[in-house]
Amino acid sequence: MPSREQNFSVDFQPLRFFGISLALCTTLFCTARLSAQQGHARSRDLNRFLTREIHFKAQDFAALQRGEIITRLLDSPVGREIAVFGIVRINASMKRFLELLPDAHLMIETTTAIESGTFSSPPAVSDLSGLTLDPDDFKAIMNCKIGDCDIKLSAESIREIQKLLNDLPDGADPAQVIITALRKRMVGYVASYISGGNQALATYYDKKKPLRLVDEFHDMLRNSPYLYNYQPEFHHFLEKYPAYPLPGTKDFIHWAKEDIGANKRVISLIHMILYRPPELRIADALIASKQIYASHYFEASLGITALAHVDEPLDKPFYLIHLNRSRIDVLRHVRFGFLKNKIKKGVVKLLRRKMLLVKKAAEKEAAPAEQER
């Protein structure tokens, strides 16, 4: 009698494509073409891999087939970095999912947003009309100084806002002045990033030691040699953006204010890049979510989502596979080391929540189409 694990069949080759072996804990992401029709040999290969490397049990394989979300924490060579992996089966049309991708409720990174929007081309201040500033953030900006600020800002932003507040006309509303200035700075930053790429990424001056996002991002890519070795064109696109045009890509920049379950809501700017490889033997689509700004907690964050068909027909269902690596500011300090386990648990819980919301939204979108058939 075959084992329960053998009932779950996966093509192991896509995992090898991303250079994932016994060194899984050092990788950025992984993806797989899952198929309930594949042979037992490949099934055993992946079952062995998942069991040994991410500690899958028989109940995990069975739960995945039932549509449940499987998550795992991965090790990282960077102490302040937390990496989390998730996979779920979605009974919906991948084509429809990709068509609706700019909608926040289908993006893992921003699906819990309470305020959100997508920048137009070129970006405009009106794109941020729905962005509001929480009282704590308003207070933080009012008291912000270079090297001592309770919200992440560049030195230029801090100086500009300080000058505006010092020159505030009688009767002017400081809150309105700050939110207006913040929106203009964000639009200018996005425009600079679109034209200048990674070199235009912000340098945070909220702490005594400045933090350059370009260094953080390139460090993440350097820790991902498999991406260069096996998907060099996508690696080059991310590394050289916007100087390396890549056919099959579509990108946009999204903003969001999220309640991630911490004390402060996080305002973030995220560059989303969808890539459809010309040959679909590995994954049908890859989505990179590159955080180019975060107001709190995150020093850097990079997510990779892979979409892979499960079986015939090719349009549905599909597997959503996601890995996010985030560098957390508080974990720089030894005295806050006791928080790491709590933060890890929170990150796993947040990913499960986000993947569940995406699954429900995607399957809800598919329901009307199914009824019409």
Give the structure's gist in a few sentences:
The protein contains eleven helices and ten strands. By secondary structure, it is of the alpha+beta class. It has a single domain (5-123, 205-372), classed as Alpha-D-Glucose-1,6-Bisphosphate, Chain A, domain 4, CATH 3.30.530.
Q: Report the strand count.
A: 10
Q: What's the CATH C level? A: Alpha Beta
CA-CA gap between termini: 39 Å
Describe the strand arrangement of the main beta sheet, using strand numbers: 1-2-10-9-8-7-6-3
Q: Give start-end ranges of low-pLDDT stretches.
A: 1-46
The percent range for helix content is 25-40%
Radius of gyration: 21 Å
Q: Give the helix/strand class.
A: alpha+beta
The helix/strand series, from N terminus to C terminus, equals HHHEEHEHHHEEHHHEEEEEH
- CATH homologous superfamily - what is it? START domain
Count of DSSP helices?
11
Largest sheet: 8 strands, antiparallel
How does this structure look, described?
The protein has 373 residues and is α+β, with helices and mostly antiparallel strands. The protein has one domain (5-123, 205-372): Alpha-D-Glucose-1,6-Bisphosphate, Chain A, domain 4 (2-Layer Sandwich). The protein is 36% helix and 21% strand. The chain has eleven helices and ten strands. The protein has helices at residues 13-17, 40-53, 58-65, 94-99, 135-142, 155-166, 174-196, 213-222, 225-230, 232-240, 340-372, and strands spanning 70-74, 81-90, 113-118, 203-204, 211-212, 249-258, 266-275, 285-294, 298-309, 318-328. An eight-stranded antiparallel β-sheet has the order 1-2-10-9-8-7-6-3, with helices on both faces. A two-stranded antiparallel sheet has the order 4-5. Helix 6 packs antiparallel against helix 7. It is globular and about 65 Å long. Mean pLDDT is 81; it is low at 1-46.
